[in-house]
């Protein structure tokens, strides 16, 4: 099968499609670089600081609420711009934002996430940046997050949704 045929067909034997083929190898380096930049920003902005996170949960500082609120506002504006101007991905694919339905499980999941965040001082976003700064105890949180994701995936069909 020629290279051009691979780009247009989903190959069951290799489990890849054309867009995945284009994004393999060194082209994934851009994601690593963006991750490194975000990690540096997280460290410099102190949003990975256990002390900043504890201040937030103890209602002693507005700093983290300002960061989170700014991210929410940027997200809302970005989604509206994507919808209004019909912006496409880098590969030229249409961005489709599916409507979400509410479930009580979101409340329980949010509470569980918040408790874990408050107890560990870490949420999934900056885990790697925290580990990169030498806070190696966060490896326990990372392993726990991976294990929790696996447990959810294992029991997902048995849980109320």
Automatic annotation (TrEMBL):
Keywords for the protein's UniProt record, in alphabetical order: Membrane, Transmembrane, Transmembrane helix
Residue intervals passing through the bilayer: 31-51, 63-82, 107-129, 135-155
Claim: Transmembrane is one of the keywords in the record: yes
Keyword Flavoprotein found: no
Protein's name in the database: DUF6691 family protein
